[in-house]
Structures are given as structure tokens and as C-alpha cells.
UniProtKB/TrEMBL annotation:
It catalyses: (1S,2R)-1-C-(indol-3-yl)glycerol 3-phosphate + L-serine = D-glyceraldehyde 3-phosphate + L-tryptophan + H2O. NCBIfam families: trpA. Keywords: Amino-acid biosynthesis, Aromatic amino acid biosynthesis, Lyase, Tryptophan biosynthesis. Belongs to the TrpA family. GO terms for molecular function: tryptophan synthase activity. Coiled coil: none annotated. Tetramer of two alpha and two beta chains. The active site is at 48 (proton acceptor), 59 (proton acceptor). It comes from Clostridium aminobutyricum. It comes from the Bacteria. Its EC number is 4.2.1.20. The alpha subunit is responsible for the aldol cleavage of indoleglycerol phosphate to indole and glyceraldehyde 3-phosphate. This is Tryptophan synthase alpha chain. Pathway: Amino-acid biosynthesis; L-tryptophan biosynthesis; L-tryptophan from chorismate: step 5/5.
Amino acid sequence: MSKIQRAFAHKEGKGKAFIGFLTAGDPTIEQSKDFILEMERAGADLIEIGIPFSDPIAEGPVIQEANIRALSAGANTDKVFDLVALVRKESDIPLVFLTYLNPIFSYGYEKFFEKCKAVGVDGMIIPDLPFEERGEMTELAKQQGIDIISLIAPTSEERIKMIAKESTGFVYIVSSMGVTGMRSEIKTDLTAILNAVKEATDTPCAVGFGINTPDQAKAISKDADGVIVGSAIVKIIEKYGADAGPHLYHYVREMKEACK
């Protein structure tokens, strides 16, 4: 069983998986490490790490601003690899990068995935990677034992089963149209999407985009295998900076409890 599969494994009292996201290097690489460990202590089952990028097209204002803060503080791809290495000295929690094609291309595809394996990255989310063009990327990642996480959007109706059948790690189901950001209400018929995915694959399904309250997490985790929260976590880091640790712990603990 891979580390990502283990994050979704059903154990008595564990509930559904809680996945937290942060932008690496916001406010510093060292503090990002501390925040990851704090979220793990609070019950997070898997952590998504955003590689700072100047044009994160899938992100709303909260995460865009986190990218700007991290880049301004000197964060780059090599320093994000250093972050993973620091976390791996203290934790075996599954780690998944969220990045875009340009940073991977600039680094060099083979070199990038070799480095991912060397430091201990388990998976990759690439929002601007078209499904039809994922062949080379998927093969390079597979050679290093790294899952490319498939994204399924509300508009993917006819493509859901096709994408789901090729999925590895987990399926990232986008809850709402548009970019990331906290939403007061999620109107998408997630049950229908989840049912379609589960008909096509045994790969676990996690829902992200917009989720930020325990009530939302509780409702979504009834059908989904996991809940993903990004902007609400990044907002806490924006508000408290280096002192965000205890606030992250409290928030993640509350959200994880809602997933049980």
C-alpha cells in the first residue's frame, strides 16, 4: 500500500481523509515545515504543497497572494525540495506537490521527477496538464513511483469515467466552477459526480475548492473519501504569519473531527 493509499485507508475512528494545502515558503521555508508538522499533529492525513509560481491560473486571490509572498521571500523549486527533505526528517505523512507545467518544464521533466523521488514526494497535481497530453508526464512520474493526481471538474460529465479509469493516488474532484477560494455554499451535484467516478475506479475520491467550514466537511465526507482545504488554511497563515501554528492546529483539528 502506497503512502497516499494509506491516507485513505478506513480505520476505526479515523473517519475520512483530511487533506490540507499550503504554499511553500509562505512566510518562510522553515515555517512551512513547522506548519506541515502542526497540521499532521492535528490529524491531517495528507498535505498538498504548492510550489510558488507567478501565474497560478487555478488559484483565487488568497493563494495568488501567498504565491507572491513566497516568491518575494526567495522561495523557488529547489527550496521547495529542501522543504520536503526537512519534513521527511521528522514525518512520513504523504506529500503531494501542486504545481504547473511551466515550473516542471523549466526544471527539466526527468530531473524534476528524479528529485521528487529522492526527497520523498508521493504525488503531483498539475491543474494545467490536459488529460490527452499527460502520457509523457505520467510515464516519467510512474518510473519514479509518483502518482499524477487526476482532476475532475463539474463540466467533465462525458469525460468523468475516462479520466477516473486512468487515475492513480486519488481523484481530485473540483467542487465548483472557477478558481480556488472559500465559498459559503457549494451547489454542484457532487453525489452524481462521486457515483460516476466510483463506477469507473476504486481510486479514492477527495473533494476540494471552496470547502472551509466543519459543516461543509461533514456533509461532503458522507460520500467522498476525503476533503481538501486550501484557501482557508492559507488565510490563517496570511493573518498570523510566523505565529500561525496554534491556529492551524485548532482549525485542522476541528475540520478533521467533522470528517469522522
